[in-house]
Amino acid sequence: MAAPKSPPPNARNDHAGNDKNPRPAPGSAAAANAGADATSSTIRAPAAVPPPASAIHDAHGHAIPLVRKAPTISASSNASTPTTTMPPPLPSQTLTAYGPDPPAPRIEDSLRLEELDKNLFRCHPEHLWLPVGSRGVFGGQIIGLALVAATHTVPRAFSVHSLHSYFLLGGDNTKPILFHVTPMRDARSFMTRQVTANQDGKPIFVMLCSFMRGEDRALVHQYEMPTPFVDPEALPTREQVFTGWLDRVPAKYHDGIHKRLAEPIPVDMRFVAPTRPTDYTFPKRKDPRALVWMKSKTKLPADQALHNCVAAYCSDHHLVWTTLYPHAVTGWTNPKLNMIMSLDHSIWFHADFRADDWLLYEMESPRASGNRGLALGRLWAKDGTLVMSCAQEGLIRATFAPDKPLSVPPLEGVDDRGVAVLNAPPTDSPLDEINRNTRKLPPTYVAVPQGMVKGLQEMEKRKGVATEGVPKATKL
User: Fold this and answer.
1) Which residues does residue 399 pair with via DSSP β-bridges, in sequence order?
2) Which of these three, 61, 82, 101, is where a domain ends?
3) Which of 14, 268, 316, 356 is catalytic?
4) Global confidence as pTM
5) 202 in a domain, yes or no?
6) Is residue 392 annotated as a catalytic residue, yes or no?
């Protein structure tokens, strides 16, 4: 039989109302092909007609337009070898503000999956992103892809309300990743799915996510959005920030900046506080808090399930880095950061939102210990609605070179536990004004690593370096 023609970009392979049996979306190639099979096994499926915007979903199913059927292998009449029919790429939907040259990366491509079998999906390596300096595929992309796979297996009446995940191994961006969905529970109000991402026969990621049928709101409360409001359109883009650095830093740093500018990041991110080159080369201790405006660089369909997956992708950006702020540690400092990676990630979805409209990501870190840092995040819509909350623990390892000077002076007022209160000096950053007008963060206590204390004492003995204010080597 001839290969079925590809579905239109917005055609959906939705599910039937009994929550278990899949059904092709009306107007899709799969539906047309099914009708052809009913009459004759030799009739070629007619070309699919894209449904109108109002018909993207059918009345019962729940799937998002990021999952395509696996390519069909068919015998070609004009060739001796089988041919493969691949779905065409979606048309570009670049916002005009970014211009057509070059087009903005589309987050839809980063979250695209191929359906191989029931509850089995594949992401091709050309869609995987390895950040500069990273040991594996971007964790937010793995989370988003896993949520896409899970969402494709539940009815439309159910929406994700929480997910909890663990990163087991770094993903290889040169090989496909398989996502296997296991239905754990199908009940009247809740459905639970487990998603395991596998590569080379090994699990690299596991996630449990829960979907809930919509209910009327009875009890509602939330925090207030950080104030005063800072207009994201008045802030520089990530690309503008890095481009501006090229005129302010030595030429030896230009290659690294160009590599970051070339990264295909499909998210527009704008820090409320100014970002300077010295934040990396000569950082100062500061409170573990950050505010970043985020949104997709491309317009997205009006599908809340898709927006949830996009926000899950975005939620891994910058979150774990807030755990380093009180320590002023980077790859150029002493102590030197030599590892930072996500260990786990949890998300709670509170309200509907659009991921192609500005969302304020508020991040803070209440604790770091044992080479692990805990970071909490809250995602706010522009109208002040708290739409999503996150929690993440990351592995943060730094090494101290006793034969080199410290990048920042030792903290004063260290007690007998090796702990001091961080009193970050006020600046003209908008973040300081927001901190004064919003919930007050408790004092940040910084533990002085005992290895650093020992190294400083050795420096004093060998070079006569004063270590006034450095605590004795006590065990925390």
Assistant:
1) 336
2) 61
3) 316
4) 0.73
5) no
6) yes
